Amino acid sequence: MLGVFVDKEKARVLRKERELALAKRALHRYSTDSNYRFLHDQISDLFAELLKSDTVFKLRDRLRKQVVVPLHKALELPEVFMCSNKWGSLPYNPVASVAMKSYKSLFSNHDTERFGEYLEKVQTGKAKIAAGALLPHEIIASLNEEDAERVAELQWARMLED
User: Fold this and answer.
1) What gap in Å lies between CA 142 and CA 98, rounded to an integer?
2) What is any Pfam family matched here (predicted)?
3) Is 73 exposed, middle or buried (0-12, 13-18, 19+ CB in 10 A)?
4) 108, 147 contact by CB (below 8 A)
5) How far is the C-alpha of 156 from the C-alpha of 145, rounded, in Å?
6) What distance in Å separates the CA atoms of residue 84 and residue 145, rounded to the nearest whole number?
7) What pTM was estimated for this model as a whole?
8) pLDDT at position 29, please?
9) Alpha carbon of 74 to those of 39, 70, 97, 107: distances in Å?
10) Phi-psi region for residue 127, left (φ > 0), alpha (ψ -120 to 50) or beta?
């Protein structure tokens, strides 16, 4: 058993000596051969750039997966549902007032039945519509927009409630 340990130790020492000799040879060639130095520097720069871009990509991907996606899901932003073409899953109740004002025609065009049902629930008091971030003149101005009267009226009523 002792012989195996001694042989492994000798092999380790020989390996380290070879590595040191190769490093010395590479250092000597780097300092004396301009072509070798140029190639070495170019490869080192490329390697550093690849490591940096890989790190940035991994960080960006990690940030997206761990922060942005859960945040969108937690906030139930309408844009998430709209971009993924999941109109039938879009929850209208938490839609912010400015988003409702901006997207009402899209909601009506892409999810006519469900959006109409939501507005009916708001009208009967079974659901709420956001109006807090809108100013009165913004609601009144949206009355001039096509198919916007119902939403504007409901947001106006909500503003008067608050």
Assistant:
1) 11
2) DUF2828
3) exposed
4) yes
5) 15
6) 26
7) 0.55
8) 86
9) 51, 6, 18, 21
10) beta
